[in-house]
Design brief:
The structure is a single chain. By secondary structure, this protein is mainly beta. It has one domain. The chain contains no helices and ten strands. The strands form three sheets. Strands 3, 4, 6, 9 and 10 form a five-stranded antiparallel β-sheet that branches. The protein has a three-stranded antiparallel β-sheet with strand order 2-1-5, with no helix packed on it. Strands 7-8 form a two-stranded antiparallel sheet. β1 and β2 form a beta hairpin. It is elongated and about 65 Å long.
Length: about 110
């Protein structure tokens, strides 16, 4: 069971119980709800046709900043060099439940 969601301009394939790092988004009381669901698959190779009201719920595990990425600009023969560092903010979330067409798929308790 998995779903494809869109958040922060990117698409992610998620299943109940997965943890992933997404771009910083607003969350309330440590819970995030993704309503922009692009596809849901309950079985291998079969997709749900009707996605109205489909949503994915998740809990926030933590926030942070990613690894530093170095950006280097160089123009030859002009004596121009510029180096810049960048660290992207992220929110780490754990997918709890996928809801579609009245069916609920939850993470298995360990």
């Amino acid at each position: 069971m998995y779903a494809v969601i869109r958040t922060g301009g990117k698409q992610y394939r998620v299943a109940p119980g997965d943890t992933l790092k997404i771009e910083t988004t607003a969350h309330t009381d440590g819970a995030i709800e993704f309503a922009d669901v692009l596809a849901v698959s309950g079985e291998e190779g079969k997709f749900e046709q009707e996605l109205t009201g489909a949503k994915v719920t998740a809990t926030v595990l933590g926030e942070g900043r990613g690894e530093k990425i170095l950006v280097f600009h160089f123009k030859r023969k002009k004596q121009y060099k510029k180096m810049q560092g960048h660290r992207q903010n992220f929110v780490e979330v754990k997918i709890n439940e996928i809801l579609v067409n009245g069916k609920s798929f939850k993470a298995e308790a360990k």
